[in-house]
Amino acid sequence: MTIEFKVGEKYTNDQIRFALNVENLGGIRPSIDANKRLNHLVILTTTEQCQKNLSENPYHDRIENNVLIYTAQGRIGDQEITGRNRRIIEQYSSPIPFYGFSNEGKQTYVFLGLLELLRHYQEYQIDKKNILRKVWVFEFYIHNEISVVPIQQARDLIAAIFEDSRRKRGLDKKEREVVIFETPTDVFETTGYETEEIRFHLLQINPYRFESLVRDVVESNGFTNVTVTPPSQDGGIDVNAYVSDSNYFFSKTHVQFQVKRWRHSVGSVEINNFRGALHTTAKGVFVTTSHFTKAAIQESEHIVKPCVSLIDGFKFSKLIMDTGINLNKYF
């Protein structure tokens, strides 16, 4: 019987099931002791990195920058933090080992590593019946630096990981919480489906083509000399633009953009890094298809640092809707 898991190695469903004493089915498989406490938990994901599958379902679980973006259980209707979904958030308060596996098909799974829950939040998605619904999204950091995980030592390993990881990233309540529904309710009720349908398509666009889309949206909103920086030379700046002469107050102001076609949320670290990349005279704008943490918003509005404007997936989708840009040419 398997008594350890190695990152990158393949395991059968039965090996996982019997070694970790979990159920045979489901993407979230908890192991519970006699007192109904959580021993450990298995997350089985079917992340698809190829464009073919992303085009079929852009909400598909993804791995970006070693972060697994994982949608909770429940395929139809609004999701709730109940049952197995609720078991996941227990890791916030206790060093419980979470084992991550990626489905390779035919009941075969690759071990990704131990998972650390960074945050969870609600967002809107369009389901298979073309209905807008609320879902819960979990973001896990994949700790694959520990290449061999003995089952008996997993709890001690994850406790040490948490202490080191959270200290390095400065994870606190503000960094865990993601701001999404700050849009006025009446605005979302009238445009929510249309904007989420646009974001649905944005998540399918190649990241480099997405930068071209941002350039065109910026140009359509009155900026001049709008250019995309070559990938090898961007230095953290993806798009440059200038305020047009028609704006008397800010004429010729240099504006620089960082663009992230991400599913995982943007934190304060990304905002700080972007600010450091800005030209000394430039105004900064951060555009993403995802969302911003509370810490990111607070960092962008720092009273003694240059302000950075934030445009999340909803706002950017509404800009596209308002300008009438055809997304088909970016595929």
Tell me the domain tally. Answer: 2
Estimate the mean pLDDT confidence: 90
Written as H for each helix and E for each strand, in order along the chain, the element string is EEHEEHEEHEEEEHHEHHEEEHEEHEH
- CATH architecture assignment name of the largest domain: Roll
The largest sheet is:
8 strands, mixed
Proportion of residues in helical segments: 25-40%
Description:
- The protein is α+β, with helices and mostly antiparallel strands and 331 residues long.
- The protein folds into 2 domains: 168 residues, Roll (PUA domain-like), CATH 2.30.280.10; 146 residues, 3-Layer(aba) Sandwich (Trna Endonuclease, Chain: A, domain 1), CATH 3.40.1350.
- It is built from 10 helices and 17 strands.
- Strands 2, 3, 4, 5, 6, 7, 8 and 9 form an 8-stranded mixed beta sheet that branches.
- A hairpin with a 5-residue loop joins strand 3 and strand 4.
- Helix 6 packs across helix 10 and helix 8 runs parallel beside helix 9.
